[in-house]
Specification:
Elements: H1 19-31, H2 34-50, H3 59-80, H4 88-91, H5 96-129, H6 149-184
Helix pairs in contact: 1-3, 2-3, 3-6, 5-6
């Protein structure tokens, strides 16, 4: 029996479920400060462009890379904090036991989907990081800055999807243990 009180109006547990979730939440909160950096460099670009008529060559790509990276990391943060999208019309109208089965289905389907995405992103990242003959060659933007942001972003997508696979696996194991305990009682 779950005796831990919930802070959520719907009764969803919003606490991290394991050490990985706690680490993801901690790292995500730390990285969220990069949004302020993005605002600052964007403001710098506006001042340089419109006040001094000296636009930069690096701000737009850098701000896009940081924003994209944080958006990708936001997915594993949402899952770790149990703030991901769910159909609350159905989820909130069923019993706690039925929610456990819905969570089980969610984790199985999510694990399969995240696994397929991780596999596809591996191919994408490999092509962005290595030349066809195997030499390390990071894909670049092709702009004046020509930063390796595309390769870095594709590598980040692969890493984050691997973390998501582990998160789904750990959550699935916890759901199975929870169902087993309920059935043993």
């Amino acid at each position: 029996m779950d005796t831990k009180p919930s802070n959520s109006p719907q009764g969803h547990d919003e606490e991290p479920r394991n050490l990985l979730d706690r680490a993801v939440i901690w790292l995500s909160k730390l990285l969220s400060w990069l949004f302020i950096f993005t605002v600052l460099i964007s403001f710098y670009e506006v001042v340089m462009r419109y006040v001094f008529n000296a636009p930069t060559t690096w701000v737009h790509e850098t701000a896009s890379f940081i924003g994209g990276s944080l958006f990708i990391i936001g997915g594993i943060y949402a899952f770790a904090a149990n703030k991901h999208v769910r159909v609350v019309l159905i989820y909130d109208s069923v019993s706690k036991q039925t929610r456990k089965y819905l969570n089980l289905v969610h984790h199985i389907v999510g694990l399969a989907f995240a696994g397929m995405l991780a596999h596809a992103s591996y191919t994408m990242a490999k092509e962005a990081w290595f030349a066809p003959w195997g030499e390390l060659r990071l894909e670049t933007s092709g702009s004046v800055l020509n930063a390796p942001y595309p390769a870095l972003l594709k590598g980040l997508i692969f890493v984050v999807l691997c973390v998501l696979v582990v998160q789904f696996s750990l959550h699935l194991i916890q759901e199975l243990i929870g169902l087993r305990k309920k059935n043993d009682v």
